[in-house]
User: What shape does this take?
Amino acid sequence: MAFNRREFVKAASGAIVLASAPFVLKRAGIAAEEPIRIGNILDKSGGLNIYSLKQMQALAMTVEEINKAGGLIGRPIELLFYDSQSDNQFNSKYATDAMVKDKVKVIHGGITSSSREVMRPIVDKFKGLLFYNSLYEGGVCDRRHVSTGMVPAQQLAPLIEYMVKEKGGKKGYILAADYNYGHITSKWMQKFIRDHGGEDLAVEFFPLDVTNFAPAISRIQAAKPDVVWSALVGGAHIAFYRQFEATIGKKNMMLASSTYGVGLEQLQLSPEEGDGIVVATSFIDSLPTAKDFIAKFKAFSGDQSYVGEYGEYGARGLLIWAEAVRQANSAEPDAVIEALAKGGVKVNGAGGLYSVDGQTNHTTMDIHLVVGNKSQSFDLIRSFEQRPPSDTQMVCDLNKNPNDAQQYEIKL
Amino acid sequence: MALRIVGLSPPSQPPRAWWWGFAALFAAFLLTMPIYFDIAVLFSVTNYLVLALLALSMSFLWGYGGMLSFGQTAFFGLGGYTYAVMALNLHETTGAMIVAIVLPMLFAAVLGYFMIYGRISDIYFSVITLVVTLILEKGIRATSGDQYVVGSVRLNGQNGIPTTPALQVPWNPKVQLEIDDVFYLAAILLVLTYVGLRLLLITRFGRILVSIRDNERRSALLGYDTRRYKLLAFVIAAGVAGLGGAMWGVWGNFVGPNMFNLGQAAQVVIWVIVGGKSTLIGPIGGTIAVQYLTDWLGTQGVGQVSLVLGIVLMVMVMLFQQGLLPSVGLIAAMARDALSGARRHRAPP
Amino acid sequence: MSDEIILETRGLEKRFGGVRAIADVSFKLRRGELRCLIGPNGAGKSTFFKMLTAQLKPTSGQILFESKEITRLEAHEIGRRGIGIKNQVPDVYDGLSVRENIWLAASVRARPTLARAKVDEVMARLELEPLADRLVGELAHGQRQWVEFGMVTAREPKVILLDEPTAGMSAEETSRTAALIREANKLATIVVVEHDMQFIRQIARTVTVFHQGAILAEDTMENIQKNQTVKDVYLGKSGRA
Amino acid sequence: MDDVAIYAYQIGLSFAIFILISLGLAVIFGMMRVINLAQGEFLMLGAYFCTLITKAGVDLWISFFLAALAVGVFGMIVERVMIRYLYGRILDTLLATWGLSLFLVGGVTTIFGPQSESVAATLGQVTVGAFGISLYNLVVIAFALALLLGTYALWRYTRFGLVVRGTMQNPAMAAALGVNTGLVYTLTFGFGSAITGLAGAVLAPIVGAAPPMGVFFIGKAFITVISAGHLPLLGTISASGLYGVIDGVVAYISSSVIGEMTVLFVAIILLRLLPLGITGRMRRGI
Assistant: This one.
């Protein structure tokens, strides 16, 4: 197999990006300053790396850009990468390493809720800062934790209103991954479906390793819903979209999802299988605001394929943190937290305006209603500007309780 | 002909003086580590020490009881979950720790009775233990819903229990163990378990157990109820694994279904294989070596860690079947034989 | 020798698939006897021994030991009641030392101090002291046979079953084994399976002949040697009489 | 009527998947007493070869067989380089192939990336009352049956099958009769691998091809083969049948987790009652 070595190395390794840093830094004339160390803990290997690989590259790219442009508050950023290998024991270990041994100012990372929940107490204990760049089920209330991804209220409300009201999808059948995200998301789905006068016929949960959906599809056929709602996650569950198209077909039944596209599912399915799935997301490659980012990312990574939301999260997380550092004029975690609490941290990113809500440390962002097309990508239906993380806001107020450090499960 | 490996005397002999010296040195080295290393190193080493308990559990059972259980992770996970659930419910950790050792032992007693008294053959024993740990994993993963509560604690399925409490000082529950305290505790527990298991081997029970590994039929014909001894060994190993699991929960303030999974079960085998199952100290070394390698690879940007681990395992099995430590001894034995052979030729008749 | 029957089988039968390895064997052994079992290869002698010690389960029939039925007992229960066996291939702990092997046998019943004394006694009787710390796996075939013999006697069984105790031994070793067996016979009832007629003549009073899974004849050695049927099936063919 | 058809379909598909994932392992374990833990990764390789070959423009049906061939050759190389030094050491083989499994997952991720690859086989669907059934799923069932019959015929009626069975029963005798036993081992392992590769290829249009996919299947395959006992074909059919029915019915009426857990549970009970597997007491057959 012929490798383009440069591309391969870049694709394979965050550490190599670091190796090129001194040269870049010297050119930018900031090498003399003491660097700001940051850590990125993601799953380069193991089953979860479909969510991580582009994100770590986007983050490394953003670091390089900031350094080229003169650094952050006059200092270069030094990025340390840790491969948590899709195993929480490494999240625990590397978070401690990053805080204690490497003394990083911020940790970006964590894909699953469980990896985040392993790292959060460690970051709390050593008074650090954790940026969790991933869509999740909402409810974490902790000033040392910043969520830059979507939470259910942001994403599901517009999606479900559109499907029920405009597309006539009154009767819904919900399939979700069998873990916290799926359970909580499915409850939000039920709530919004009912709110809009629809009916949820059934909710089913699937362990992450299920690949045979034939029994579920037969049950769906027996129940005859208008829409199938999917909150399925991970490589194995992609099989569902394939089997759905082969058995029922989107001609006969609508399919909408909170997670489709997150793991670049559309690239892994045939054009027909992905065509017509309705999704709400905070980023797609074809957004007008995304052109510049996409071009830079493709040049940086040498990878011409679709980038997607999880790739963009890497850049988004770092940019938001960098802006907070600038406002605080310090990279020290407590100073950054204070800057965030003021609520004025706003960044114009590739998916629109991101502003951190000081009450919850969650991010207000634009949500884009999109539909899968025949070219393994998405078409924009419409955008909903500046949707707040209202679910988490219902339960969390860090201004009132700055010492809160728990995840609320929102009761419906 | 059986070649006697240097430094490897039959387990039934009481440890020699050098062994006590070694054990003391090992303990002293561990206990003085906090002087030389910072807390991040201690934190990772604690992880190795705790996992070494799991490796000890397997190497005791496999190396001396002749039973290869692929499912020691079942007891490891059970120990961890028991500790987390009990400690969160009781707001007290000493009792939780004890239950976390006892419950896996009870479970092992039932499961072991079923298998050992059912005279299930070796390979099926391995498979059934593996299946059991996979069932537990699947079962735990399926508890994400809010209806799965033990006492006041949500089991949380896939996400595990990330609020696993820190250990309290038994006589003063207000004081919680910090990272360096947990390190001391893990080091002491490991040394005690190691010495304890080693001494167990020279008791009547230990010697009979080793005889069963060597030739079960002979032991039965002599009149030993081999099933009883095997069951007891299985139960003891489960207790050690349970202790490891509970300590792992204490170490990372987290327990999760990954504790049960195939990858974790594979790792245990790899540790023991690398270290060599014919000793108890080997697997401890194997655990530390392999875990350090995995940690280190994770920060080196070399690509896929599993690629490297796979190669390590294949090379170990193909080239160093005895494990690294005993292989060194074996080479020494062959060298010694060659030398003494040469001397014999040279000696006058 | 007393008239008390110590070991008895009634209509013992063993089938492997469609093959009858042992057919309707009714066998009686008096306490204190030294009995030899002979018969051509495949006559079922080893199978018979294995059933007596629960290494194989009989298809039908009964085994009685000291007038109590032991047919369905586990191997270790039979061992505990006092039947010891030396199997055809040396069945020892190759990975353990000679002393350890004997100790394991001696300590089935005895308390630790008694067991240690017993080990010393057996080692002395079998002249195994120089080998005490060698691994049994390192020893020569004949030595391993003696180790096993030592193990069987060390636990002081009431009945000892010996399956070809002299296989692979030199003439000198064989006669020593014969002496050891006679010595052991003072304390225990012994059944020996052997092919070596010289050896049998040295030790046996009564001989039982197995043929095709059944008992063909049972008598003194002299009478057996005169028995025409036995000659036909066994002695005649082997030509060793 | 619909219900009967849909149950039959669920059971059939479940049975077919059990057969596909375990037949290769059964051949290798049943014939050679080698437990190949990298079997799941062989399946994965089959799926990858299938998607790659299809992407190169080859017809899907032809690519199935090319994928089988490729994995078969790969299996023979593995046998030559690794397995043959470990015969008779069942645990060592198990560990070495475990290493191979980790190595392959890492290797494939490095080369192809972590995302899954796919291949489309849109044959359409047939309608049974209110239910649509994917036509391709029926093809999968047919493939599983064909694979069974083919393997049976090869073993039972060909010279190769006879030589293989003879060699496995008594290698020394076979060697004395002039059989190149080394070659027979290589070919048998290659054949088992090829079946697995074919299974992976046939499953690819349903489940795709992704580096960790082997792990999803190996547990089930392992349990099927162990439950089967020492007659690889008959045992696999019975075990797959049993587990297929349980999984198909339970997964349909409750959920797939309960289905899988029931299968694992039944496996334990079964091994307790029949410690040598379903065919443990049978003496003849294949």
Notes: The longest strand of chain A covers residues 362-372.
